[in-house]
Design goal:
Number of strands: 0
Distance between the termini: 39 Å
Number of helices: 3
Order of helices and strands: HHH
Radius of gyration: 12 Å
Strand content: under 5%
Shape: globular
Structural class: mainly alpha
Number of domains: 1
Helix content: 55-70%
């Protein structure tokens, strides 16, 4: 029997992956944001669909802060 993931843990891991990707892109604009985001998520044991990655990567490249605590701008 596998445990159901804790939503707060998943949210925190997702935020950490997004933040790491955004920082990498800020430090080096040549960063492949889609690929980096997928890698960061995978390192944290998370899987998401391609459309989600594309949308979040676009927001990162556009300079938007992506937040999963209700403060996404």
């Amino acid at each position: 029997m596998s445990a159901t993931p804790d939503p707060e843990q998943a949210r925190g891991a997702t935020q950490a992956a997004v933040d790491a990707t955004a920082t990498a892109y800020t430090d080096d604009p040549a960063t492949d944001v889609d690929q980096r985001l997928r890698a960061e998520l995978e390192q944290r044991g998370l899987t998401v669909d391609d459309a989600w990655v594309a949308e979040v990567a676009h927001r990162i490249r556009s300079g938007h802060h992506v937040s999963f605590d209700g403060d996404s701008t």
